[in-house]
Amino acid sequence: MAQLPLEGIRVIDVSRVLAGPFATMLLADLGADVIKVEPPDGDETREWGPPWWGDPRDRRSAYFASVNRNKRSVVLDLRTAGGRTTLDRLLATADLLVHNYRPATAARLGLEADALSVGHPRLIVASIGGFDGADANRPAYDLLAQAVSGLMSITGEPDGRPTKVGIALLDLLAGLECAVGALAALVGRGRTRRVQVNLIEVGVTSLINVLGNHLATGDEPRRHGNAHPNIAPYESFEARDGDLVIAVGNDAQFRRLLGVLGLDDPDGRYATNPLRVAGHQQLAAWLGERIGAWPRAQLVAALAEADVPAGPVNTVSEAVAAMGSGWTQRIDGMTLAPSPLRLDGARLQPRHAPPLLGEHSDEVLAELP
Question: Is residue 171 among the annotated active site residues?
Answer without folding.
Answer: yes
